[in-house]
Model the fold of this input.
Amino acid sequence: MTKRLAQIGKFAVPVVIGFFIGRTIYRNWGQVRQAEWQLAPLYLLISLALTVPWFTYRPFVWKALLARFGYELPFGASFRVMRQAEMSRYVPGAVWQYVSRVYLAGRWGVPATACLGATLIDTVLLLLAALPVAFWSLQDVLPAAGGYSRIALAAFLAGSIFVVHPRILNWWAAILARYAKQPYRELEIRWITLAGIWLSYLALWLVLGLAVAFFVRGVMVIPGSEFPRVAGGYVASWVGSMLAVIAPAGMGIRDGIFGLLLRRIMPVGAAFTVALAVRLWLTVLELAWLGVAHWAPRGPRGGGNNPC
Done:
């Protein structure tokens, strides 16, 4: 009975949240019409350029992590596998992006334990790198908790070198593996290497947040001083949607959180409209990069020539 309710919830939650977002936009349509909409191609081009690292750097990191398990993949293969598997996030259920990556990597001779281990470590590092930006955004959203969020941010940054210790990170990944009901093999890697990946992912989040801010400026007039709020708000909404695994690809949840955070700089109707526009923009880019992955060089494969 509980499993059936959970399955129903995976479909119902995005629909319910989407309904309330749509109703909010409808009831505040006057605000949407009066917002300072302005198409600025230059800002959209800058946004497009800033999203490139998000779609290209993560396959490189996953490839490097996979090598630590003793399996080398050419970048073209890792790029294809990740881009194809990421589309499984839109299927209800929290495990499909992992299952599909295991399947696709398996066609290149990578065993499930190595693929899942590298994927879980990558996911944990990505989440940990997003948390400082989310904490920073929290102090602006909840003024009463501002001092506490600054303390939490300072503590997290100071303790990050310990958080990404191989033993602790393997512990996190093992928990995720049990949740996903998948095997896990511990990763053997230097502490400094994991810290470097964490720092690079922190920079990656900042760049992606800035890309979202430039997109927002590309469709409506906002002052440059509000870019940090937009960027931090998007990263915080991504963290919230990832922790709420019930919705596929965070649909509804991420957009709702982002819309609420955008209320700090624009009317509520316009805020939720922009949040949906950002979702559409990034989904279109994701599909475009999926097309690029289809034509990416496949590279040599030991033991055969099967592509992903």
In short: Residues 9-295 form one domain. The chain has one domain: 9-295.
